[in-house]
């Protein structure tokens, strides 16, 4: 698992040493930026989606604990790096994932990164489990992943879904569109008991929103918003079975 990180350390030499160690011994850590002060660190943290912050305790015009207080809702792991071991209790109270003493031990650095990797991997697995679309668990609703977490939709609000490579475009009755990083097959399986029919390799429609069927080899359907969608010949009989 890749870990997006920044290094917050006022000494340039110390930043370079840590960055070089990470590149050589912890290749899954991607260093997106460096900061020498609390203010610089705040800018990086607020503009990046981070997994890990390497944080020196003592900095000019503030310290690590001031920074974390100003960040507020911390959604990344923190590895404290300091030459002073009397900060250990405060670090624990600040929910640090690991505490490294200077000069940095390569073995301890690897342990710290492995520990954070394990934490983030478990969190990702838990999120994936929550985000798996299971309409049976919440009757009439479906969850779709977003960058911030997930959004819950009423299945009755969905007009149709359209394949877009490994993504799916979800079109709502409100004329809004959602782009989701899941395949159309994923939604076909999730919505199979909610009145949705796969009418084409690229389309999954809400049968309750069909207002007209136009005959043809496969034919086509018209939805309540006027949208017409072609029906594959191989999907025709399954679609028509909904109206028997």
Description:
The modification 4-aspartylphosphate is found at residue 56. InterPro entries: CheY-like_superfamily (IPR011006), LytR-like (IPR046947), LytTR_DNA-bd_dom (IPR007492), Sig_transdc_resp-reg_receiver (IPR001789). Keywords: Phosphoprotein. This protein folds into two domains: 3-130, Response regulator (Rossmann fold); 141-241, LytTr DNA-binding domain (OB fold (Dihydrolipoamide Acetyltransferase, E2P), Beta Barrel). It is built from seven helices and 17 strands. 33% of the residues lie in helices and 33% in strands. Strand 6 (77-82), helix 4 (88-93) and strand 7 (98-101) form a beta-alpha-beta unit. The two termini are 51 Å apart. Helix 2 (38-47) packs parallel to helix 3. Mean pLDDT is 87; it is low at 133-137. By secondary structure, it is an alpha/beta fold.
If you consult CATH, what is the topology of the largest domain? Rossmann fold
Task: Return the average pLDDT rounded to an integer.
Answer: 87
Low-confidence stretches: 133-137
As a percent range, the share of strand residues is 25-35%
Largest sheet: 5 strands, parallel
Strand order across the largest sheet: 2-1-3-6-7
Distance between the amino and carboxyl termini: 51 Å
Return the domain count. 2
User: What is the H-and-E element order?
Assistant: EHEHEEEHEHEHEEEEEHEEEEEH
- Rg from alpha-carbon coordinates: 26 Å
Instruction: Tell me the total number of β-strands.
Output: 17
Q: Identify the CATH homologous superfamily of the largest domain.
A: Response regulator
**CATH architecture level-2 label of the largest domain:** 3-Layer(aba) Sandwich
In the CATH scheme, the class of the largest domain would be Alpha Beta
What percentage of residues falls in helices of 4 or more residues? 25-40%
Secondary structural class: alpha/beta
Shape: elongated
| Structure annotation, total helices | 7
């Amino acid at each position: 698992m890749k870990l997006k990180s920044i290094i917050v350390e006022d000494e340039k030499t110390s930043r370079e040493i840590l960055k070089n160690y990470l590149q050589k011994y912890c290749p899954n850590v991607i260093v997106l930026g460096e900061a020498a002060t609390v203010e610089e660190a705040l800018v990086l943290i607020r503009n990046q989606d981070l997994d890990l912050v390497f944080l020196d305790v003592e900095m000019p015009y503030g310290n690590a604990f001031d920074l974390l207080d100003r960040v507020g809702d911390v959604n990344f792991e923190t590895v404290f790096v300091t030459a002073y071991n009397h900060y250990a209790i405060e670090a624990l109270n600040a929910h640090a994932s690991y505490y490294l003493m200077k000069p940095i031990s390569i073995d301890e650095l690897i342990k710290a990164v492995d520990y954070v990797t394990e934490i983030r991997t478990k969190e990702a697995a838990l999120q994936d489990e929550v985000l798996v679309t299971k309409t049976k668990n919440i009757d009439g609703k479906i969850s779709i992943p977003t960058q911030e977490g997930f959004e819950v939709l009423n299945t009755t609000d969905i007009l149709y879904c359209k394949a877009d490579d490994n993504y799916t475009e979800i079109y709502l009755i409100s004329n809004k569109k959602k782009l989701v990083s899941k395949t159309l097959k994923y939604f076909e399986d999730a919505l199979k008991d909610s009145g949705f029919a796969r009418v084409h390799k690229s389309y999954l429609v809400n049968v309750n929103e069909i207002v007209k069927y136009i005959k043809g080899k496969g034919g086509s359907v018209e939805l309540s918003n006027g949208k017409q969608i072609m029906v594959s010949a191989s999907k025709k009989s399954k679609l028509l079975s909904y109206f028997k």
